[in-house]
Design goal:
Structural class of chain B: alpha+beta
Number of strands of chain B: 7
Radius of gyration of chain B: 21 Å
Shape of chain A: globular
Largest sheet of chain B: 7 strands, mixed
Number of helices of chain B: 6
Helix content of chain B: 25-40%
Largest sheet of chain A: 28 strands, antiparallel, barrel
Structural class of chain A: mainly beta
Oligomer: heterodimer
Strand content of chain A: over 45%
Number of strands of chain A: 29
Helix content of chain A: under 10%
Distance between the termini of chain B: 49 Å
Amino acid sequence: MNRPRRLLYLLVPLAVWAIAWALPGRAQTPPPDARFAFADTTLLRDTLGLRFDELFPLADSLGVTPDTLRALAIRYRYPLRRIVMLADSMHVPVDSVGPTLERERFNPLAAGKRVNSFRYTSGYDVEQSSSVWTNGSDYNFVRGSIFVRNTTDISQDRFGTGGSSSLRETRNSVTETGWKLSPNFSIGGRANLERFNSTDVGSIGDQSETKNEFQLSLRSKQQPSRSFTSELNFFTGFLDLTNFQQIKRGLSNDLNGRLRIERGNWFTNDLTGQVTGNLARTGLPVSPDRVNTHDLSNNIRGSLGLFSPRPVSANVNYQLRRSTVENPLAVTDTIRTPADTTYEPHTHVQKVVTVNNGVDGTLQFRQTNDRKFDVNAHVTISSQDNGTVLNGRSSHRDTGWGADGRYLWQGWTGEAHFSYGVVRDEFPSRSLTGGYGDRASTASADGRLSHGFGVRFVLQASGRVSLTRSNYYLIGFYTNPPIDNDQYQQNYRLEGLYTVSDALNSALALDVTRVLALNLASVSSSSNNETDTYRAEWRWTYRLLAGLTATQRNALSANYLKYNYLASSNRLSLDYSTVTTLNAVLSPRLTIDITHNADFQPSGSYGPLPDGITYLSRSDETRNYQLRANISYTPIPGLSLLLSPEYLANNRSSAQNGVLAPQQLGRTMDFSGGASLNVPVGSRARLTGNILRTFRDDRSVQYSSTGLASPSPRTSVDFWNGSLNLSWDLGK
Amino acid sequence: MTLAAAALSALAGCGLFKPDTPQAPGASLPPIALLYGTPDQTLATFAAAVEAKGGSNGLTAYSRALADSLTGTDACEFRALFDAVVYHSITNPIVAPDGWDRTHEVPSFYQSFARIRPESYVFTWRDSSAFPDQLDATTATLWRHYQVQAVPTSGEPITIAIGIVYPLELTNTATGWKICRWQDNVDPAVGPNPPGGDALSMGARRLLNP
């Protein structure tokens, strides 16, 4: 053993000492409620110094997933309670808080009397074979009744594969200037300029689009009473659009607005609407012909609330949307006379019509958040006709209703959900002679019962059943429609969590699933099958030392695939997996996570052999191992250094003449290292993001049916990846 | 809680979660005679199974024509090999060139082949005096030309599979002759890219309609 390697042993006691003196882990305390005892507590880990207390109860009461709410908190750097408060005060859903704030920031009727602000952002995202460079600026100037606003965005996307490269450039600029004639009304002009260029090396033709819109702008807002507020905006002017498909010049119009009516505590109605359209002369770029085209799009969305804070309340959401776009199309008429046949090209108008209407409503009975019952129903109708003969038309209709209930009684929490829906799709032009439609009805019910026994043990039992029936019918003449089928699924799960102490807890779960795939017609029912899955999971978490936590998750599952009419094709696949994670917080600046994953999956035919006993005859076996570490060191606030080595080993064997033999071996080593930044640049700018250098080595060996090994050459790649963003704010 | 239990019982009782009873495979077709006593009987049973299109006992007839060394006692395992031109013309083939085995063939390929056309199928084997059968007590090596046609109630038959199997190796087992190795070849008269795109080899069908 050489001397430097012997010296490494000296580091072992040093590492043990460092771990022993490490600080407590930073994971936040999971919620004590038994209903959330089995929630994914990794979502509670702090990131960028934010806390996610009450994440699960808040997400549950808002009707969003916990990871969505967590993502919103990270994106806007707001505590959860503040996001909920903003959503309440702005009367918008929680995921609309950010866009609403951004929109109001540039509303001239909402701006103060003296504003002069400029924001510049520049971002660079780089991946192995692509990069995106974005530049954007927002300028807002208000002096008395005069306002000027400009938003400019430039994006350059580069893609490179196999020695070829392509570039996409998108440039948009919206400039609006005007006068506020009163606090509630402004008049002005708006220029909307858009450019797009696409260049591909080796492509026959590059593509580009130029769009210029110059419009008169009228903005107004009304508040005739405290319970009634509205906005109405109108833009009209000249449109000039040129791209590789069409040239369109004419008059463009945009009428949009919003309305909120509020009556005491019992009635609210939020309505937004927009009608856009243009009257234009349109033609193909390669033809001097021009035809009249009329595009029209309307979109109305609303939300109606009744008795929102009361024990009995209701809300209804509705949407009416229709869009008609007319595009030029080159056609050739054949003119036959007794003497001659001639062909006359001309431009035809092809109409694309899209309709999307829907309404959904919920009636809520709520005593507390733990004792409630909801009934809901929805109808959605959409259709599309793009004017082409083949596959041009389709329609979709979705109706359904459901009920949800939850009841807390003496420490027991019971939850139940039921839904029934019918989806009808029609594709009448799948071929020149016709198509088919399908009617799929889905009934689903699930329930969950949980109870905490003392402070240490939580038990939860859940069950789920669903059935989807798909029936197909012909429209006109069509030769190959899908076959009627039923898909049935039922699942039962029992799990218990035992908390020995703050440092140690363990959970055990047993799960049984039955899935039936049934084709109903005799022509294909021989492939009908049933899959029975039995799964057991055991996981434990133990805080070994103050800053060192170990977690292990073991899973064992067996999948029996049984064919109703072909027992000789029955299969059994087994899966044993163990994931072990060590989380170490060595100091407030240094954290290390190490994860080891082992997965063993034998599978093969399952049936009686000549001795009459049922066996698994292994025909396939997979062994996968993964070792990954994430090391993060923060030398100064706003700068973290990251190291992430990862090793993967894949081994697959398959049966060759009844004997398992190696089929493929794979070894992969990944190593990423870099830095994460969140630092101020001067007094007005900030640089955020991360930049990493990734190295990857990969090698595999393929074995032929005769056992001959053919190793692949080792492949090595290294590339930069990450994303950096600079934002610079000037003025107020 | 009692109310919820009663509601669930009512839902379970009203048939919302009861799947329909499927028709038995090929309920309206006569059963195929399961004859594997000679190589030609095995090929005839195989052809009848393809013509049954999953009906009657077609799947059983098809499955028993293929050698099975894993769950059975056969000396070899069924394996289908592709014409090299066909294999390399497919983008991202789902198996290695020698990777198509019994688990790919039944029931998924058998079922998907039956659904290529809605009409009845006619399967024809043809041999050649230029390639006489090589036969002993335990193995047989054959040359066979095959053609599968979909026959509409009116109009011309449509060829949906055509090609040559050589060598077509069978093994004599305790339950009859079974197909061990199917080396698929494109029919030179048709080529790998037939006009109209229907008259493909079985190897191409295996890769395109797995």
